[in-house]
Amino acid sequence: MSYPSPASLLEVDLRPDRPPVLRVEPPADAAGWAAEHRQALRAQVTEHGAVLVRGLGLRDKEQVRAVFTALAGDLMAEREAFAPRTPYGGGLYSSTSWPDNQPMCMHHELSYAQRVPGLMLFACLTAPAEGGATAVADAEQVLRALPAEVSERFEREGWLLTRSYNDEIGASLAESFGTDDRETVENYCRAHAIDFAWRPDGTLRTRQRRAAVVRHPVTGRPCWFNQIAFLNQWTLAPEVREYLVDEYGEDGLPFNTRYGDGGEIGEDVVQLLNTTYEQHTRREPWQAGDVLLVDNIRTAHSREPFTGEREVLVAMAEPRVPADGRTREGKRR
């Protein structure tokens, strides 16, 4: 069976307000097509940070898993999830469980972990009636656009993620760590630089400090790489934040972020981060059968509010250990 030559993959549709789009004729064997064009597709991701492939006609989970594996090899198992997903086996997951009418603002997947996915893969089986785009933003551009006094403090100090696990909000202990065995969880935390404490009621509270700016493993250029805004209390809808604070107290929120020295991040800073992301956001509405490849270090992604049914499958691949975005002299590359 023959497919278009890899050179044809260079003919992506480039527009400033959306990710690059590659339109293809529906192949008889989508996984075979993906394997043959893997190198050219990955070159597009390296050049642009993301690429949307339209026309593969994916219809079910088995097809999606086969295409993802052809494009990325072994898929990662998720650990330290902040919200539940449905696992479908072999590294394939549902989208994160999140209210349809609430946005998931820009972030880099698992940027608070020590080993992060270098590549994110998304596939749409059912497109929503309205909204629901998985939008993207260039992390190099975002970093350059931030005021120096904001970015430099985060570069110096990093950022701190605090989490309180419960069975009501966010991922449970078992969903996040793959087990609720206390000793196994403690060993994982020790091995991954996570401070932890068990509360009298048996729930777990953790703290982990991570770099806010990292160097891209291929280009070496600094990228704004974190979930500072997304997991901060001020990004929550006001009524949601009020409920959570009343229910758990500010120190017991399911998740929150701080400066690396433990200082509180003001609402104005969180709004600035989200506004800067929005200024650099590119979006394209999903169509059934689409595949989106995202360089997780260079490119942030989000999920916009939607109406109607929406089924987008997700996988993570190419684990990386991010390198701090500063040189030994403390300057950006």
UniProtKB/TrEMBL annotation:
A Gene Ontology BP annotation from the UniProt entry: antibiotic biosynthetic process
Domain of life: Bacteria
Alphabetized UniProt keyword annotations: Antibiotic biosynthesis, Dioxygenase, Iron, Oxidoreductase
Gene3D superfamilies: Clavaminate synthase-like
Occurrences of domain TauD/TfdA-like (ranges): 33-316
InterPro entries per UniProt: AlphaKG_dependent_hydroxylases, TauD-like_sf, TauD/TfdA-like
Coiled coil start-end: none
One function term, GO molecular function aspect: dioxygenase activity
Pfam families per record: TauD
Cofactor (UniProt): Fe(2+)
PANTHER family per UniProt: GAMMA-BUTYROBETAINE HYDROXYLASE-RELATED, TAUD_TFDA-LIKE DOMAIN-CONTAINING PROTEIN
This protein's name: TauD/TfdA family dioxygenase
Organism, scientific name: Streptomyces mexicanus
